[in-house]
Amino acid sequence: MNTYSLKDPVTASPPLVKLGLSPDEARCYEILSREGSQDAKSISLALNILPNAVYRLVTRLMQRGLIVKLDTHPVRFQAIPPVSAINALAGTKIREIEEYKSASLEALSSDPPVHTGIDIITGRKEMFAKGAEMINQAKKEVLIISIGEPVPDEIKLANRDAINRKVNIKFIVHKSDQENRLLLESWIKMGLDIRHYPGSGYHLSITDGKTCLISASNPKNPAERISMYTNSEGLSNAMRNYFYSLWEKALPVKLN
C-alpha cells in the first residue's frame, strides 16, 4: 500500500464536505479510498496532524460507517467502497433535510405536515432486517418481488406471524426451478401466494400500499446490495401498481 509524507498535498473534496464531513474527515476518507488501507502514522503524515488526532478522526469516520478497522498489527484502516459509503452519507443528509423541511412546515402552518422519510440501506443483512420490520408492521397486505432465495429466520418468523394476523402475502419470484423448488413449496405450505415471473438484479417489498423497500444487487457480488426505504404513500402505491401489473402476467407456482 502507498504511504504519504508531509510533501504530499491532500486537499478535501468539496462535495464530501457538503455532505457533512469535516475537511480532515473528507481528506482521510479519500486517502483510504484511493490508496487502500493505511495505518495511523501514514494518515498522520498525509494530513499533517498528530497521531492522537488521527484516532479521533478515524473514530468519527467509523461511527459514520465510512471506514472499518482491520485486525492487523499495526492497526490499519480501510475505506468502505464509495458506492455504499456515499449513499449512506447522502441518505443521512436527505433525512436531515426532510427533518428541517418538516420542522419548517410545522412552524409556518397550522396544519400538521406529512412526514415522508427516505432511508438508504446498505448490505444484504440490513435489507432483510428492514424487510422483516415492514412485514411485522403490516396490517393487510405484503407484496414482494425477489429472486426466490433462502431467507434469514427473522423473515420466516415475520411471514408466519403476518399470516397468523390474516395478512395477505403475495410473492413474485424471479427463479422457479428444481434448485429452489423445495424452498418455494415450503413457503406455499406456510400460506404465501407465489407466482413466477423471470427477472433478476432487484428486490421490491410493499406493505399496505404505504411503505416500500427497493433494492438492487451487484451482478458480480449479489451479497452487495443497496436499498432505498420510503414511507411515501404516492411512491408505494406506484410500486404496488407495478407489482400487480407483473402479477397478472406471472404464472402460479403450485405444490407437486
Automatic annotation (TrEMBL):
Q: Identify the Pfam families for this entry.
A: Regulator_TrmB (PF11495), TrmB (PF01978)
Q: Which domain of life is it from?
A: Bacteria
Name all Transcription regulator TrmB C-terminal domain ranges: 118-250
Domain Transcription regulator TrmB N-terminal: start-end pairs: 17-82
> InterPro entries under this entry?
TrmB-like, Tscrpt_reg_TrmB_C, Tscrpt_reg_TrmB_N, WH-like_DNA-bd_sf, WH_DNA-bd_sf
The family database entries (PANTHER family) matched by this protein are listed as: HTH-TYPE TRANSCRIPTIONAL REGULATOR TRMBL2
Instruction: Please identify the protein, giving its name as recorded.
Output: Transcription regulator TrmB N-terminal domain-containing protein
